[in-house]
Write a structure and sequence with these properties.
- By secondary structure, the protein is mainly α.
- It is built from ten helices and no strands.
- It starts with a helix and ends in a 6-residue tail after the last helix.
- The relative contact order is 0.12.
Length: 259
C-alpha cells in the first residue's frame, strides 16, 4: 500500500514537471506570450547550458563554478552548525547564557542576511572570509531557534527520570538532551542549508572570481537571459541535491523522527 502511494506521488510530481516544461515551451514558442529577449525558450536554455558546461563562461566552466560555490557553502554551513548548535544548547540549558545572549540574538535575528554584506566587505574584503562570515551569521539563526525549541519540547518526565538515574554532564547531554532535540535540530539544519545557498549566491553577485553568482552577474551584464536561467537552475539543482543529502543523513541519524 505504501509502495503504491509512493509511486502515485512520484507520478504526480513528474506530471507537474512535465506541465511546467510544456507551459515554458508554449509561452516562449508558438504562442509568443514571452519575448526571447526577456526569457529564453528551452532551445536557448540548452544552448546556454552547453556553452558553460562544455566550454567557458564568466572565467570558468560550469563544473568550476559549481565546485567553488559548493565548497563555500560546505564551509559556511559547517560554521553555522557549530555556532548555531553551540549557542542554541547554551541558551536552552543555562539561564545565564539565555539572559546574556538572548538580547543580542534577538537584536541580530531580524536583520536580513543581505544587510550584512556591505559590512562584511568592509571588514574582510572581497575574499572568501566575507562570504563565510555572512553565511555563518545568517544560517546559524534558524538552527539556534530550532535547537532551543527542540530542548524545550523534551518530555519533562523523561528529564526527571534521567536525573533520578544519575545522568549528569556529558552523559546527560549525549543520551538525553541531544536525542530528544535532534528532530528539531535537523529541521533547523535544513533551514540553515537553504539560507546558506541564498546567501552565497547573493554574496557572489557582489564580487567573486568564480561561482554560480559570478555566472549570474556576467549574464546580467551581457543581457544573456539563457545564461541567467542556467545559473538559476544550477542553484535550484544544487539546493535540492544538498537537501536530499541532508534528509538521507537525517533518516539514519534520527530514524525515530519519521514514521
Amino acid at each position: 500500500m505504501k509502495d503504491a502511494k509512493g509511486i502515485r506521488l512520484r507520478l504526480i510530481s513528474l506530471a507537474s514537471c512535465g506541465l511546467l516544461l510544456l507551459l515554458w515551451w508554449a509561452a516562449t514558442g508558438p504562442t509568443g506570450w514571452v519575448e526571447g529577449s526577456r526569457f529564453p525558450n528551452p532551445a536557448n536554455f540548452v544552448e546556454s547550458l552547453q556553452q558553460v558546461a562544455l566550454g567557458n563562461y564568466a572565467g570558468g566552466s560550469l563544473a568550476k563554478h559549481i565546485a567553488t560555490s559548493s565548497w563555500l557553502v560546505a564551509r559556511g554551513f559547517a560554521l553555522a552548525v557549530l555556532i548555531g548548535l553551540t549557542l542554541g544548547l547554551a541558551m536552552s540549558l543555562s539561564a545565564f547564557c539565555r539572559d546574556f545572549f538572548g538580547p543580542i540574538f534577538n537584536f541580530i535575528r531580524p536583520v536580513p542576511p543581505l544587510a550584512w554584506i556591505p559590512l562584511a566587505l568592509l571588514w574582510f574584503g572581497l575574499g572568501d572570509a566575507s562570504k563565510l562570515f555572512v553565511m555563518a551569521l545568517a544560517a546559524s539563526v534558524p538552527l539556534v531557534i530550532n535547537t532551543v525549541t527542540g530542548v524545550e519540547q523534551i518530555d519533562r518526565t523523561l528529564l526527571e527520570a534521567a536525573r533520578v538515574s544519575g545522568a549528569r554532564g556529558s552523559v546527560w547531554l549525549r543520551h538525553v538532551i541531544l536525542p530528544g532535540a535532534l528532530p528539531h535540530i535537523m529541521i533547523g539544519m535544513r533551514l540553515s542549508l537553504q539560507t546558506s545557498w541564498t546567501v552565497i549566491v547573493a554574496a557572489e553577485l557582489l564580487g567573486a572570481i568564480w561561482g554560480v553568482g559570478k555566472v549570474l552577474t556576467a549574464a546580467k551584464d551581457d543581457v544573456y537571459p539563457g545564461m541567467i536561467v542556467v545559473g538559476m537552475a544550477t542553484v535550484a539543482v544544487l539546493g535540492i541535491a544538498s537537501s536530499m543529502l541532508l534528509e538521507w543523513t537525517e533518516r539514519r541519524v534520527v530514524p525515530w523522527s519519521r514514521r
